[in-house]
Amino acid sequence: MSPEIILLAIGCYLFCGVEEKVYKIKTGDWWESGIKTNFENELNAISFIPQKTTYNDVIQIFKNGYSKQRTHRLLRHQEYNGKAYYFNREVRYVYRQSYMLPTKIFNMYYSSNLEVYLFFKDDTLEFYDIIDERVDEKTDSRYFGPFHNSLFNKKEGDIVDCNKLFYDIFTLYNRQNWDNASHCDFYKDPTYWDDPAYDWQKYFKRKGALPCGRTIFNSC
């Protein structure tokens, strides 16, 4: 192989997103439709017990029909209920049931939503959340179903967005998203990177600076 082709391949690896695509495929970080119905029987078949439920337990019940899976390169520190949790794998299942409510003028369509978020440290479940929001087919009124809990309340409401940004910045090295994370704990909390789980100098040349990138031009 000629030197020119080798240099082109290296350049594309660094700048064309090849590494990002390979990493997503290898770790199962793939977007699926994940919109299914009749999920309650499967959900009733498993008890999510932190520190005891494993990733394989979940996959055996729900298979690979997840809507989203992320595997972080860097351990994510998450405060929840006054306690620190650490995870590097997220799995999300989303299920919808649509309803049509006829009116005098036109038909209205509504959906009941069942969303399951699971957070693992390697292969062990650390914590989870289930959003179970339903619609009464006769009255169109919304209510929470029996599986609902309150992890994603107003205080924790941007946990999903911040986890995605954390993944984009520190796993896929899309550091251009850094300023978009100004509302997230890992950006605005000056003590976040003092956690013993991190050596901040591996990720920043100095505190308050942009995170290190993956190229020779902005690596630490």
Tell me briefly what this model is.
The chain has helices at residues 3-15, 18-27, 40-44, 55-62, 159-170, 185-188, and strands at 35-36, 68-80, 83-102, 107-121, 124-135, 142-144.
Q: Could you walk me through the main structural features you see in this protein, from its secondary elements to its overall organization?
A:
It is a single chain. The chain is α+β, with helices and mostly antiparallel strands and 220 residues long. It has three domains: 1-30, no CATH class; 31-151, no CATH class; 158-220, no CATH class. It has helices at residues 3-15, 18-27, 40-44, 55-62, 159-170, 185-188, and strands at 35-36, 68-80, 83-102, 107-121, 124-135, 142-144. The longest helix has 13 residues, at 3-15.
- Shape field: elongated
Question: Could you describe the largest sheet, including whether it forms a barrel?
Answer: 6 strands, mixed
Q: What is the domain total for the residues?
A: 3
The total of helices stands at 6
Structural class: alpha+beta
The arrangement of helices and strands along the chain is HHEHHEEEEEHH
Rounded to an integer, what's the Rg over CA atoms? 21 Å
Let me know the number of strands: 6
Helix share, percent: 10-25%
Sequence stretches where pLDDT stays below 50 over 5 or more residues: 3-17, 30-35
Mean pLDDT: 77
